[in-house]
UniProtKB/TrEMBL annotation, chain A:
Biological process (GO), any one: DNA-templated transcription initiation
Name by which UniProt lists this protein: RNA polymerase sigma-70 factor (ECF subfamily)
One Pfam family, short name: Sigma70_r2
Annotated RNA polymerase sigma-70 region domain residues: 17-75
Family: Belongs to the sigma-70 factor family. ECF subfamily.
Cross-referenced PANTHER family: RNA POLYMERASE ECF-TYPE SIGMA FACTO, RNA POLYMERASE SIGMA FACTOR HI_1459-RELATED
CDD domains assigned to the protein according to its UniProt record, in alphabetical order: Sigma70_r4 (cd06171)
Domain RNA polymerase sigma factor 70 region 4 type, residue spans: 111-163
Native organism taxonomy: Bacteria, Pseudomonadati, Bacteroidota, Cytophagia, Cytophagales
UniProt KW keywords: DNA-binding, Sigma factor, Transcription, Transcription regulation
Species of the source: Marinoscillum furvescens DSM 4134
Coiled coil: none
MF terms (GO), sorted A to Z: DNA binding; sigma factor activity
InterPro entries (alphabetical): RNA_pol_sigma-70-like, RNA_pol_sigma-70_dom, RNA_pol_sigma70_r2, RNA_pol_sigma70_r4_t2, RNA_pol_sigma_r2, RNA_pol_sigma_r3/r4-like, WH-like_DNA-bd_sf
Automatic annotation (TrEMBL), chain B:
Molecular function GO labels: sigma factor antagonist activity
InterPro entries in alphabetical order: FecR, FecR_C, Ferrdict_sens_TM
Protein name: FecR family protein
Occurrences of domain FecR protein (ranges): 101-192
Membrane-spanning parts: 70-92
Species this chain originates from: Marinoscillum furvescens DSM 4134
Annotated ranges, domain Protein FecR C-terminal: 234-298
Keyword list, A-Z: Membrane, Transmembrane, Transmembrane helix
Pfam family, one: FecR
Keyword Transmembrane: yes
Length: 175, 301
């Protein structure tokens, strides 16, 4: 523990800085309710603070994710997952203009992709979005979700393939 | 080696092991471009551009430990503002406080900011101070739990413990606290201990006092360093609650003591590295039966 005790405000601040957004996002990807994802992420941090002396520094991330997950599971009001996203405001030039050639038509592309992502199996969806949106390394995702790096790679590749198939299906229907 | 699957090509591509051209050759340009378009889109997303909750709203003492249903957007906006305001205020007040914690089973020695004095924390103890105080030659500390102090002479030195205050000029001493009791043993110099009711006692070198159940009890003379720093804990007619608190912290166990009378006293020395021996030494003479399952110790008469 020593100087890395979570009971120290500065350490807690750093833990918050590092994990708050990805915890909120993870809960959103998994359960599809942004407001609750925010509330439960906050609740998980409150519990971490109240139990700071019992949670070793190295275990904080898995503690937070476990608590957040449990809060959602205990919450009876489960809904169908319908994910919606905003464009990030702090996009850099290179991030917004990567692909020269768009095969899918621009109109409704975002909505269709959101629908296709919402329909992915839960595990694949979490892993895929943590990788792409939160830019977590495969190793970090594996540690967070307690699965192997191989499984992470497999979930991402399968998600991508499924999304393409779904989008192809949707564009064909609309032709 | 078996032919790579479609997914395996995607993984190699995502891991940067093969180029866009390589992937196109393997799975076709059409698929590759579609994957690029999907990823380019998702990569720009975020669930929410708004601010995430502030950590200071949690560490502030006024922060509520539960979330509230939403009555109206106005109420929410008002409460969020209040919490953030409290957070800023608290943070401005507390920013410079230095905190050290000894984990369960851990003994930790810390140098104090006067550069000469030290404190040794027993497992589970927490010490904190404000560097600003020390800069003004006011050596003040807050202590939860048990600690041994080695204080160099100089400006006034005061420990605000949970169950009382101990002031010194220059000395070595131990403070122990359990439930609402306070124990002070002085090894060198002289200290004054004051309980929360304001009753004080002067503790000279070699003396020890324990405030328990409304009276100061004196302890037998000691001149050496406390034994707990060297892997043992010694007790003299110590209330059982004090012994149990000690076992709990040193051995990282939980103790269920509801079935026994904890007002009895124990005299003896127990090791910190052999739980079986420690349990035998404490409970056998008192005729208390004990069962240990994992980290749970259950006591019965």
């Amino acid at each position: 523990m020593s100087k890395d005790s979570v009971c120290e405000e500065r350490v807690f601040q750093a833990v918050h800085e590092q994990h708050a957004t990805s915890l909120r996002n993870f809960l959103y990807y998994k359960f599809g309710n942004l407001e609750k994802a925010r509330d439960f992420a906050q609740e998980a941090f409150i519990r971490l603070w109240n139990n700071c002396s019992k949670v070793p520094f190295e275990k904080t991330r898995s503690y937070l994710f476990t608590i957040g997950n449990r809060l959602f599971l205990d919450d009876t009001d489960h809904q169908k997952v319908v994910l919606k996203f905003e464009k990030r405001q702090n996009l850099t030039e290179s991030q917004s203009t990567t692909n020269p050639e768009h095969l899918y038509r621009e109109e409704e592309f975002k909505e269709r992709l959101e629908a296709a992502i919402s329909a992915l199996p839960e595990k694949q969806r979490e892993v895929f979005l943590l990788s792409r949106i939160d830019k977590l390394k495969n190793k970090e995702i594996a540690e967070t979700l307690d699965i192997s790096i191989k499984t992470v790679e497999k979930h991402i590749a399968t998600s991508l393939k499924t999304l393409r198939e779904k989008l192809d299906e949707l564009s064909n229907l609309n032709l | 080696m078996a032919e790579k699957t479609h997914e395996e090509h995607i993984t190699s591509w995502l891991n940067g092991e093969i180029t866009d051209q390589d992937l196109s050759q393997q799975i076709g340009t059409d698929h590759t471009l579609k994957y690029q378009q999907i990823l380019a889109e998702v990569d720009t997303w975020t669930p929410d551009n708004g601010e995430i909750f502030d950590a200071a709203t949690i560490t502030a003492p006024a922060a509520k430990s539960r979330t509230f249903p939403i009555w109206s957007s106005l109420a929410v906006a008002a409460s969020v503002f209040t919490l953030i305001a409290i957070g800023f205020w608290y943070f401005a007040q507390q920013q410079d406080s230095v905190v050290h914690v000894a984990g369960r089973g851990e003994i930790k020695t810390i140098d104090l900011p006067d550069g000469k004095s030290t404190v040794t924390l027993a497992p589970g103890a927490i010490i904190s101070w404000l560097p600003d105080d020390w800069a003004e030659t006011n050596r003040a500390l807050s202590l939860e739990g048990k600690a041994y102090f080695d204080v160099e002479p100089g400006s006034p030195f005061a420990v605000n413990a949970t169950n009382g205050t101990v002031e010194v000029l220059g000395t070595t001493f131990t403070i122990d606290q359990f439930e609402s009791s306070l124990e002070v043993v002085c090894y060198e110099g002289r200290v004054r201990a004051t309980n929360l009711k304001g009753t004080d006692v002067t503790v000279n070198a070699g003396e020890g006092y324990r405030y328990h159940e409304g009276t100061w009890e004196s302890l037998p003379p000691t001149y050496n360093e406390p034994t707990w720093i060297n892997g043992k804990s010694s007790f003299h007619k110590a209330p059982l609650t004090q012994v149990l608190a000690n076992l709990q912290q040193h051995y990282e166990i939980n103790i269920s003591d509801t079935a026994i009378n904890t007002e009895r006293r124990f005299t003896g020395t127990i090791p910190h590295d052999n739980l079986q021996v420690a349990l035998q030494l404490v409970f056998e003479p008192l005729g208390i039966r004990y069962t240990l399952q994992g980290k749970q110790l259950t006591l019965s008469e």
